[in-house]
Write a structure and sequence with these properties.
- This protein is of the alpha+beta class.
- The chain has one domain: 2-Layer Sandwich (Muramoyl-pentapeptide Carboxypeptidase, domain 2).
- Helix content is 38%, strand content 11%.
- It has 8 helices and 8 strands, in the order αββββαβααβαβαβαα.
- The strands form 3 sheets. Strands 5-6-8-7 form a 4-stranded antiparallel beta sheet.
- The chain is globular.
Length: 247
Amino acid sequence: MGLITMTRVKKRKSGGCFAAAIVTAAIFAAGVIFEKAFEGLEKLPEYGTETAVNVTLQNTKAAEVPVNRFLILVNGENKIPDDYKIELTELSNGEKVDSEIYPDLQKMFDDMRDEGIYPVVGEGYRTRERQQEIMADKIRAYENEGYSEKKAEEMAKEWVAVPGTSEHELGLAVDINADKEKSDNQEVYDWLYENAYKYGFILRYPIGKTLITGIDYEPWHYRYVGEYAEKIHKSGLCLEEWLEKNS
């Protein structure tokens, strides 16, 4: 944006100039806020490895594991059962996923690359300890901005699942970003939104569903649900809504 130059005007018009200056400033501020909001969607959060703070589970019950385990519901009210077992496959970048979702994930990535879009799995399976570290980092970040410990924890929970309630601990969720040397995040997100269901994945935390999912919109977070992905995607419902309607 270029510099705004001021010129001398007659005194009787000074009120109009003052009003125009206010409008200009407001438009500029709105533009900055709008731009920053979308910058936030252009990248995955960067997580550190500081010693975790203790964030406990409250008002949660063990999630039921359905016959089709890909439909297991894990959220702020349903924690991962203590006896939940998975087999993991390691990806080329060291991330891991549930072995049963690997073939569909690989096929999806291959097809994206054939179209000139280059994705990477930024985050796959996480241990309980790793999830705790991520939560701790997010809380500390808000505390460093001046929020109280209680408020920081409340805000952190809007972005990070409490350990024991994260889909990443299931191995069924992947945070997909772009290989920045070949693609940008937005084209990856756009492609996934239009096509991921064909490979068994759904956008887990859509826009406008935060009050239901407990997590803000995350265009990078995809969850494997297998054969039900197309129905869920086309319904416009989040996983919680779809399971309640189809249980």
